[in-house]
Amino acid sequence: MKDGCTPRPSGGDPGRATVGGVSAGAGSVAALLTMKSARGLFRRAIAHSVPGLHSTPALARQVTAAFADRLGAAAPTSEALRDIDPWHLAAELTSFNAGLHSHRESWGRLTETGTALCPVVDGEVLSKTPWPALTGARASGTELLVGHARDEFRYFSVMSGRYGTFTEEDAHAALELHAPRPDGTRAYRAAFPEELVETVYSDALFRMPSQKLAEANAAAGGTSYLFELCWVAPALGGALGACHSLDLPLAFGTLDSPVGTQLIGEEPTPEAVALSREPQEAWVRFVTTGDAAWAAHRPGGHLTRVLDTESKTLPYPEQVSRQIWEGHFPAPFDLP
């Protein structure tokens, strides 16, 4: 060190720490927003496609015990699971999720989601789900960049071979599982006679949890920037629509990644490259300044950045769904 020079700290600015996540990672970010133990550890948060999935302790204990047994772990504890190879853990979880329907009588509604593991509302680490915690003044708002894709569930329906084949039985099951009570079923049937199943699952699993997180964070005194991705994935002749995970390669600029090539194609179009710049620049600007470069999403206004070939800031596009869910939050799954 030269004379007269002051050493500079390594790393970034702790006053601008930002947490971010997509899908399940966005669920973790939403949980962190309301956890007392996480207060003061970050200033800003980014969450893409926030899932509305939480579990009660009673259900979580049963699910964890079954998964630990599948892995051959000595006990359903973090200590017993810690040394299992992560790749083996991930592969077994995928198989475990695929077989959830066999536990329908024991675990109830959770088995219809395709996801066994989710944050647990234990009353201690996570006192409530994020939405009522923020709107009920149990947590303070922060600077939040949050959003979802327009056709979230399309990826799952196309990849499972079910797209265009949903029956009345499927519609009844989707509404029974996810429609808000008491009028959600009637409202969904009246508003969405076409693609009813996809709309219900897109809303319940990702769209409404994301939009309501933006509203709740603003109500808690934070600043929320909401987006909806409406650009159609070019792969499979556009059948995927603006689907779940499409925002990932766009936001990270990884158009040539496995996910990018699956959804966009081996050779990204100039349109894809141009669109990708906006979420990348929004992330950088938001992390640096707390401003995503479009109008904030506030109660009554609901302004939203619609990401497309020509992006625009508009009133929230899914107003019908928002009205169906008015006054309702995704509730934790519990034992039947």
Proportion of residues in extended strands: 5-15%
Order of H and E elements? EHEHHHHHEHHHHEHHHEEH
What Rg is obtained from the alpha carbons, in whole angstroms? Answer: 21 Å
Q: What is the arithmetic mean of pLDDT?
A: 93
* Biggest β-sheet strands, sense, barrel: 6 strands, mixed
Question: Rough shape?
Answer: globular
Low-pLDDT windows of residues: 1-6
Q: How far is the N terminus from the C terminus?
A: 66 Å
| Total strand segments | 6
Strand order, main sheet: write it out. 1-2-3-4-5-6
* Count of discrete alpha- or pi-helical segments spanning 4 or more residues: 14
If you had to describe this structure to a student in words, what would you say it looks like?
There is one protein chain. By secondary structure, the chain is of the alpha/beta class. It contains 14 helices and 6 strands. The chain has helices at residues 24-34, 57-71, 78-81, 86-98, 104-107, 130-135, 154-159, 168-178, 184-191, 196-219, 247-252, 258-263, 270-289, 319-324; strands at residues 18-22, 44-48, 143-149, 223-229, 303-307, 312-315. It has a 6-stranded mixed sheet with strand order 1-2-3-4-5-6, sandwiched between helices. α1 links the parallel β1 and β2 (44-48). α8 (168-178) runs parallel beside α10. The radius of gyration is 21 Å and the shape is globular. The termini are far apart. The model is unreliable at 1-6 (pLDDT under 50).
